[in-house]
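Standup notes, protein team

Yesterday: finished cleaning the Phocaeicola dorei DSM 17855 set.
Today: Glycosyl transferase family 11 structure.
Blockers: none.

Input for Glycosyl transferase family 11:
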Amino acid sequence: MVVVYVGAGLANRMFQYAFALSLREKGLDVFIDEDSFIPRFDFERTKLDSVFVNVNIQRCDKNSFPLVLREDRFYKLLKRISEYMSDNRYIERWNLDYLPYIHKKASTNCIFIGFWISYKYFQSSEDAVRKAFTFKPLDSIRNVELATKLVTENSVAVHFRKNIDYLKNLPNTCPPSYYYEAINYIKKYVPNPKFYFFSDNWDWVRENIRGVEFTAVDWNPSSGIHSHCDMQLMSLCKHNIIANSTYSWWSAYLNENNNKIVVCPKDWYGGMVKKLDTIIPESWIIING
């Protein structure tokens, strides 16, 4: 049994599930362990099959790999040693480097634990990933009306990831200079752009972004039920200016406009992503800010 641990906020779960799909595409029978995860924040409670139509969670027994979340020194050592055993192997990689041969470690009775934040893991199974992440229909009249509007104009989603918990735990979120430069880039190449701002911290936006005409999409929650709606709406825009956030990343990746412009920052997680081409597709525009 090959298992992939899935546990985090929605967007990181999407990377983990996409990694699992890439293993399935290689002919492996892959199970998901999302029951071991213990959420710390409300935004980590959203499960994939509550948001997407085609996500198929083939669950493993919660007790199959009991050391998944054990972080004390002794059990961490046991997990590292297990990787060289023939059974009950824990393959744990929490760094953000792309590991092109990690799938070769798959064997009978092993679990992959990590974020797997790189589109290159599932590049060969892109169609399966896009199909899996088909959103369920929007059920709010306000969102449905906006979705209709977004596809009829030169809409540009601008995402500000500035939640207080996010600011505390992750360094180097995008500064105002990045957004001004990105907006000017869009204005240069997109005729009559209509900017739609999405954020989880509107105080930050009001204090830092001035002189830009925009529509504020400020009615969807940033955690709990319906916290995916901003991602869904951003994916419907013609173009995207994203933050250095996986939530933001997926909104642009799932944008189906063949002529989309995606502007993204150079800094991801304070330099923890060492090779930008592992997280930024070639066609996206990188701005220093």
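Follow-up from PR in the comments: The mean pLDDT is 92.
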